[in-house]
Amino acid sequence: MFDYTKAVLSKVSFDVNLFCKELKKALTRLLPHEIEELRIWVNNLISQNPQLDQCLIYLKA
Length: 61
Known about the structure:
61 residues
């Protein structure tokens, strides 16, 4: 499920609203250790796509 989530988020990274929506969905489906890995992966993605940084609010918990 983690790899699928990364694939989906990569594909929608062009649209901030869609990315945030998919990120919220992913957080309800992933296991706690996968969420930690996702947090690291999203931070790396945001370094390439700075406009996505507003979605970080969903990872702060």
